[in-house]
Request: fold
Amino acid sequence: MEKHYDFSAEAERLIYDDWESCGAFRCGVDSNKEPYTIMMPPPNVTGRLHIGHALDNTLQDILVRYRRMRGFDCLWLPGTDHAGIATQSLVSKQLFADGVDLSKLSRENFLNHSWNWKDKYGNIILQQLRRLGASCDWDRTRFTMDKGLSRSVRYAFLRLYGDNLIYRAERLVNWDPQLKTAISDLEVRQQTVLGKICFIDYPLVFDKELCAQPSNLSIITIATMRPETLFGDVAVAVHPDDDRYKHLVGHHCSVPLTGRKIPIIADVRVDRERGTGALKITPAHDFLDFDIGRDHSLAMISVFDKRACLNDKVPGIYRGLSREQARSSVVAALETQGLLREIRDEIHSVPHGERSGVALEPRLTKQWFIGMGSLAKRALQSVENGNTILLPQIWHNTWRRWLENIQPWCISRQLWWGHRIPIWYTQDGKEIAADSEEAALEQAQQKFGKNVILTQDEDVLDTWFSSALWPFSTLGWADEQFADVSMLQRYFPTNVLVTGFDILFFWVARMMMMSLYFMGQVPFKVVYMHALIRDTKGRKMSKSLGNVVNPIDLMNRYGCDALRLTLVLQSVPGRDLRLSEKRIEGNRNFITKLWNSARFLEMQDCCYDKNFDITKVSGALHRWMLVRLLEVTAKVERALDDKICMFHEAGSVIYHFVWDVFCGKYLEMLKPIFSFGSADEKVEARLSSAWLFYGLLRILHPFVPFVTEKIFFTAEIFSAKTDDERLIIAQWLDADSIIVADDWKNDVDEVEWILGLIGEVRSLRSCLGLVSKIITPLRCDDLTSLAETRVAAWATVVRSLAGIDWMGDNRNKDRNKEKVIVFIYDGFVSPGLGLPLGFEIEQAKNRVSKQFDYWSSKLKVLNKKFDPEGKFVKNAPENIVSANKLKHLEAVNQCDRLARILADL
RNA sequence: GGGCGAUUAGCUCAGUUGGGAGAGCGUCUCGUUUACACCGAGAAGGUCGGCAGUUCAACCCUGUCAUCGCCCACCA
Reply:
């Protein structure tokens, strides 16, 4: 083995290429195996690997590698999402930079450019995933706009349309004036901004014939943040019980600047507390107003075009002005006319487009919608009855609340890049739904005769529509041409979905609904939602803050495994994680540690022999190690259970086991055996340690695949392996098949006892400032005691690890010459003996009295528990009581001993 | 406004049926004992946000307050 582990990109790529070329990632190789499926959340084709992807895919990779080793036929299906808006923006930007006049570009031409762009750049992120070690089946890579998936999208649309769940309607939608498309409610981000609230006087208009002026008021004052929309006003609404205004209901006022006469109406939805209690109603530009306008059968006047500039419904001088320009112009005009009663700053929230970042405009347009009610109900039920488990379970509430209040989903987008809506219109606007233009024409001709002319709907579908089908569209659903029903049958439903909680509604819920609708079953049994990654200060990573870390860069500096381990160790369910480079550095050290432990074993000529039966070893040390290894294996298995998904738990158990137990204790205790042991002991140590190390490597592999595979590949320990052996396809350590004899427990206790003793000596010598190997610890108070025998059996180990160069009866030692210390451990006590003259008696005294304080305070607590007046004995369960009795006994003994020692000092 | 979460060692955070307060980093002391100084040994440091309650027993359960954060709704 090399002295240093090489985690450079090139070195890791060699390992990855080997995995890929040996076919380790492929599914379906052995049909006897139980399938295990994970669908990778498809990253945007425009994407570059960011730290969130790194976390997401590391967790998936861990699950897949683990299952693969446990003998499952794993399908981890990768792919990319066409990302309608993001891609179209990028391509447009590039074309613009290349000097292309976008306004003259045909749809077809634009799409050609987009496909070229996709072919050129669309796979970068998939390449980056390889760097991360992602063991997905690249042969199954899909793209949301590839042939098969496009067909699935059309098929899904047509079925929903046929069932009247998809419909076209003129509605107020969230309109992005920069992207010039409708977007869904979920793509709206509220932003708090400082605006100006205007109090505007609307002159009352009284019809002399109908009634007299009801009061001495001549105006009604409304409050608005959006004075520029007054051109679209169709009413002023007040609360029916509002004494200030109710006498005005039924009368009219006029819209300033236009003089248009509008009614004053009453509606309970008006909040008397806000503004002036009088609300201008602009149904085409406000969601509440839309509802009120509809219920009062009011007209809807759109005054904006698709860029949110004023249109020809407004007086000439305002036409073509942007919202912002219009606002100031209107305010100025109102002021001039004396209708602006007041204007002042006010903080309020304004909906912005998630993508474009500009303020959105509610806009009245014809759009396609999916009615979500019945779909949502089933999705809700499936989680309620446990068919799909959401982890962490915290999300159940959120899930329920969202689905119970779900609104129709606007699925049409005024874009070119995406799945075009499979609807054609006849000259007179009749809808024809069909899978292709030919089919549509055929259908139309049958219905309307040969002369019918069709035009396809211009819009494309929301990107999330195709994503919603991902768990089954990727497996050949509705794709007759490549009909491979076996894939769907075998790998659907999937086992686990790993994703961020930020797309719970966008994606997870919609996959659920679509899958239940089309497949009749849930798309995944478990959804594991990991947290968001923040910077060291807890801030979200964003380009504007400049705190975005590049995972590729981190991997170049610390190795992939170190990054993976860091992400895993910090990924506690339900809690955001802060990424610090210090942690990555520490985990890089862990990788080095592991590498060096392999080198150590190699230097000792340890050799893995698959025929070696570990259950036949005689050395207590190896038995102890095996038992501990089996414990850890069980813990990892439990933590990696799909229904648990405690990645950090698994990671930290392994981390500490490797560093503290395997390296810190086992290997250290092996050293004296290799140095002073008998030939038999050495042989057993070489075989056992290699066997145990191999077990360890396998548990580690899902978490740190590169270094473990590299060790397996290069260490002499495994020189007996065959050419086609790889750790990635090695069989997981089967703890159940390893049965250890009952009497091993004694060995395990024995080693723990010795370890405790060593710890005690170390602590003591350090406290007393004893350096180097000068300690001569002591006799027992009873030389024939069992303890003495036990230590004698481990003499070399204890000497080596505790730094002792002599052991035995010290009663006859010359205390002036020998440095001897008081030593207390279980059967070992040396009251009154051992402190050399001139030694730091005070330090020793302090230490002992500290211990005494510790035990006596413990004893106090326990005494109180066993107070005859107390209810502990009466009420506590028996096992707790007896455990406490033992503790009490121990405390009494310890206090006794320490008191004696103190007295002697 | 509605909902959810957080508050534990100097820092970042674990702590899954209520019965031992822990890790990493940092700090201090010591150590080049034949894998590793990207190392080893040891130590210091916390009334587990405040208050009240349930219980024999509370970091853990209930209530309440304080501070912080997230999600949903909201352009009067």
